[in-house]
């Protein structure tokens, strides 16, 4: 009976041809994550000490298939266009894995010394990163949705990881409620998009929307809902209210993870949706993005000026930086290639410099047990290495040449200027003013470190563990390297024909 | 016979309108109510409105893709419930008296 059934099935069933090389980074990483779960279950107590090292290896292993794919250089399309592996996707995947690795380095000592569950933390972290990596290649509503939830749900738990602290609980609850609300909005938008186009593939949706003959208000509503859903994820004003509380209450390594990797994943999804799915309706996308970008920069910077806690200051500065990353979207029809390059470049450089700033905050807080900016007073006197590194990161965030942040701002300005429209020029002016404002609050921290006295005259040295030293080295190296040799990123972002090809007139 | 003639045919636009209404109720409820549990139930209402929309579109277009998507939404909603309730239990253990989201304000928003 079963044998005949099987024979019937196997005669009619044609296995899909899968390009396993293109899927290799995900497969390798998923296998490693599964192994981590096994190790955790088999070696319950002893496993704790192995977890950081093993998860670090799990994050570095997929870089090998990414390298071979990058050397191969061909764009690969899988599952009928739902999963695309091109140079940009590979660059973003490498960025996610490396930022995940830095977060593991950040977390190791913090978790071992605090009141935390250790091994499960690394399982959550790696699961969340798997979602981000899939997001870099997703070109389909279902894939985007599943990747988004795979990266968000562990992140809600990570924000609550300090289980016995009310602040951490509150951080998790706010992040969770805002997060599920945002996914519900986004999903309703997706259901309308599906109804309009009859397909979940972004290319089909893009083609159908570009025709422009079917129910315009519904299309506009769907686009707005989806973009607003992701605006929560990237904490753009006015959907940013969760970010400062969550960032302050969550354990600091988790904050670094949320501020960098989780935010970058939101931008990656926006990138694909805007450039592939919504390219035919830039009349809706561009004004919305213009408002989001201008509001995020201005509000983020103005509130950051008043902060005395460095983590909250970095949270608001992150909101302002999100505005800079959103800016190129506002001119996506007039300078498509430049905007796309600008967003990807800014994301990669932002990951390096912002993670770096968090490394130093964690290293200094190990001694001072405080997140106040005043606790950085006199840092140069007793920890010159940390001071120099922090100066590099803050100067880069402020956009001072020759550091990475300067180049990132430069490409955004270039994209806005190339568009040559009043919208582009006006946003460039808003951005220039905001860059100057931002310099002030970064400089406050610099002043405290270099010129102020140490609080209570406590100048005992900071003991920095090896993991934090290597994290500092990695992020500082990347920040300086991208500034001095900007061509490095251009090698990857230069060839964007795969995405640009579907743009009208692109 | 008489009744059958006067009853209008239920087309997919009925389902879509109902879904839009449910979604609006959920969204307004989330913004108005302050109890975390009720807020969460409102999100569930919104997700079910999404499911209804997907099924209605899939049915009217004869496309199974939308119905498959509903399963993804249901599974994800279940995972979200588990995580959300865990966070709320952890919070209520610390603060048994916290029944509204405004009671939880150790952090200045």
Question: Can you describe this structure?
Answer:
The complex is a heterodimer of chains A (506) and B (109). Chain A has 506 residues and is mainly α. Chain A has a domain of 226 residues. In chain A, 76% of the residues lie in helices and 1% in strands. Chain A is built from 22 helices and 2 strands. Chain A has a two-stranded antiparallel sheet with strand order 1-2. In chain A, α3 packs antiparallel against α5, α5 runs antiparallel to α6 and α12 runs antiparallel to α15. Chain A is globular and about 80 Å long. The termini of chain A are far apart. The C terminus of chain A is likely disordered. Chain B has 109 residues and is an all-alpha fold. Chain B has a single domain, classed as Orthogonal Bundle (Helix Hairpins). Chain B contains 4 helices and no strands. In chain B, α2 runs antiparallel to α3 and α3 packs antiparallel against α4. Chain B starts with a helix and ends in a 15-residue tail after the last helix.
């Amino acid at each position: 009976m079963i044998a005949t059934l099987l024979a019937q099935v196997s005669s009619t069933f044609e296995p899909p041809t899968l390009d396993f090389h293109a899927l290799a980074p995900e497969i390798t990483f998923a296998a490693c994550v599964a192994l981590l779960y096994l190790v955790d279950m088999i070696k319950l107590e002893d496993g704790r000490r192995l977890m950081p090292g093993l998860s670090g290896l799990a994050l570095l292993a997929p870089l090998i298939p990414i390298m071979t794919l990058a050397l191969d250089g061909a764009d690969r399309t899988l599952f009928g266009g739902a999963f695309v592996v091109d140079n940009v996707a590979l660059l973003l995947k490498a960025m996610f894995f490396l930022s995940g690795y830095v977060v593991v380095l950040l977390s190791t000592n913090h978790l071992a010394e605090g009141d935390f569950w250790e091994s499960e933390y690394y399982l959550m972290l790696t699961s969340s990163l798997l979602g981000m990596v899939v997001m870099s290649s997703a070109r389909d509503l279902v894939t985007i949705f599943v990747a988004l939830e795979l990266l968000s749900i562990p992140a809600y738990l990570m924000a609550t990881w300090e289980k016995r602290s009310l602040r951490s609980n509150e951080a998790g609850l706010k992040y969770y409620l805002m997060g599920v609300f945002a996914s519900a909005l986004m999903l309703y938008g997706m259901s309308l998009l599906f109804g309009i186009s009859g397909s979940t593939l972004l290319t089909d949706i893009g083609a159908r929307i570009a025709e422009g003959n079917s129910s315009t208000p519904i299309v506009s509503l769907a686009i707005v809902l989806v973009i607003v859903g992701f605006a929560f994820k990237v904490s753009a004003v006015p959907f940013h209210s969760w970010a400062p509380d969550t960032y302050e209450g969550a354990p600091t390594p988790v904050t670094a993870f949320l501020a960098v990797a989780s935010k970058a994943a939101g931008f990656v999804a926006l990138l694909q949706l805007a450039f592939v799915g919504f390219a035919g309706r830039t009349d809706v996308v561009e004004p919305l993005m213009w408002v989001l970008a201008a509001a995020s920069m201005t509000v983020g910077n103005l509130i950051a000026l008043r902060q005395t806690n460095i983590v909250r200051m970095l949270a608001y500065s992150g909101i302002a930086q999100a505005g800079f990353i959103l800016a190129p979207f506002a001119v996506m029809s007039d300078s498509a290639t430049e905007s796309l390059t600008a967003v990807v470049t800014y994301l990669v450089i932002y990951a390096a410099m912002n993670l770096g700033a968090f490394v130093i905050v964690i290293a200094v807080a190990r001694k001072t047990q405080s997140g106040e900016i005043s606790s950085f007073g006199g840092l140069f006197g007793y920890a010159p290495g940390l001071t120099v590194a922090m100066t590099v990161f803050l100067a880069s965030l402020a956009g001072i040449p020759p550091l990475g942040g300067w180049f990132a701002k430069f490409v955004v300005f270039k994209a806005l200027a190339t568009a040559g429209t009043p919208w582009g020029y006006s946003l460039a002016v808003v951005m220039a003013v905001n860059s100057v404002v931002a310099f002030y609050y970064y400089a406050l921290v610099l002043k405290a470190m270099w010129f102020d006295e140490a609080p209570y005259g406590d100048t005992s040295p900071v003991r920095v563990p090896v993991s934090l030293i290597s994290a500092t080295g990695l992020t500082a190296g990347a920040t300086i390297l991208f500034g001095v040799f900007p061509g490095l990123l251009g090698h990857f972002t230069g060839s964007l024909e795969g995405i640009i090809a579907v743009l009208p007139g692109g | 016979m008489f009744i059958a003639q006067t009853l209008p045919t239920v087309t997919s636009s009925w389902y879509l309108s109902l879904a839009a209404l449910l979604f609006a109720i959920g969204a307004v409820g989330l913004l108005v109510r302050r109890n975390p549990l009720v807020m969460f139930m409102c999100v569930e209402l919104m997700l079910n409105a999404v499911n209804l929309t997907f099924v209605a579109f899939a049915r009217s277009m004869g496309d199974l893709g939308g119905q498959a998507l509903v399963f993804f939404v249901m599974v994800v909603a279940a995972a979200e419930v588990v995580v959300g309730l865990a966070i709320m239990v952890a919070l209520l253990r610390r603060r048994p008296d916290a029944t509204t989201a405004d009671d939880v304000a150790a952090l200045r928003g």
